[in-house]
């Protein structure tokens, strides 16, 4: 018995996955390495337009590896977008480092160049520049990479691009995830394509990816016996799961088109409502629209996102709040936070007013109509 009939973002299989899974079985490559892993990494490199990709067990593991490669350790500071899933910042804690959270700006909902600049200026003045900046591309929308990268370059701080939600998106004609020194993808079950669980670390720095490969396989020294000089992890992706990934990656562009069409249908059905606004798309960028997200002005529509989520749940439809900003999380109590402007916290407003609607690429028009009808019922407005 499932709680929902219509999920927020369920897996969408092609049917071709089985072909690659069978290949793993028939060759007995039932291991965290093998031909599917190699082929999947190669396909990812081609898709993202980068030199090297490393398939790993999760997006979180990929972020952790990136921090290790940048020598982040105890006492270091790492800047991170505040409006994101906790996985963006958990690896900062794994390394014993201190996160500092940066607000969003209203045009992409991603890291505010104004807030980042203020934070870096202050950090430089104190002689405590961060070892890395983790920039998240929320719900498929790329951050303002040109502005953010140029600020980071000024202070010579490397960027990790958390593109867990933006695989398939573009910014100025380049694939999202390929802008930072390192890019991170996730293939968790709810992402635009999935391996059930998995992730990837990508970079144009081949030596760095080789080092990540070493760290992700228990940091085993090249000797005939087992020797280790540094702490490692068991972070590699299984050859069976990489088989799922190969088939999924083949249809990524179709999945992006489907999610964008779902977004367009929601816009068409709901944009006439005064007090409802959809997540914007930056000019010169193309979001994969992983989730359709909108904001609701309670004074105008009479209900808040939580009331809508509850009403939809009664009809077995799964909707969610926008991520609760990390600087508001009990886990990160006391962490420093730089808002967009001294007295304007964009992320807090988005959290208070934001709503994510079911956006799975396999959702039928009929299912989407059910969501739209339930939404309009709760708002007590007529569709037109
Ligand atoms: C899903 C997600 C991750 C983590 O990916 P996993 O593969 O689940 O570990 C990291 N960052 C963001 C923004 C995500 O949405």
UniProtKB/TrEMBL annotation:
Keyword Transferase attributed: yes
SUPFAM superfamilies xref list: PLP-dependent transferases
The EC number(s) this enzyme carries: 2.6.1.-
CDD domains membership: AHBA_syn
Active site: 191
Cited Gene3D superfamilies: Aspartate Aminotransferase, domain 1, Type I PLP-dependent aspartate aminotransferase-like (Major domain)
The organism's place on the tree of life at top rank: Bacteria
Keywords tagged on the record: Aminotransferase, Pyridoxal phosphate, Transferase
Chain positions found as N6-(pyridoxal phosphate)lysine: 191
GO molecular function, one term: pyridoxal phosphate binding
Coiled-coil regions listed in the entry: none
Record-linked InterPro entries: DegT/StrS_aminotransferase (IPR000653), PyrdxlP-dep_Trfase (IPR015424), PyrdxlP-dep_Trfase_major (IPR015421), PyrdxlP-dep_Trfase_small (IPR015422)
BP terms from Gene Ontology: polysaccharide biosynthetic process
Keyword match Transferase: yes
Pfam families linked: DegT_DnrJ_EryC1
Family per record: Belongs to the DegT/DnrJ/EryC1 family.
Protein name: Pyridoxal phosphate-dependent aminotransferase EpsN
Taxonomic source organism: Anoxybacteroides voinovskiense
Top-level taxonomy: Bacteria, Bacillati, Bacillota, Bacilli, Bacillales
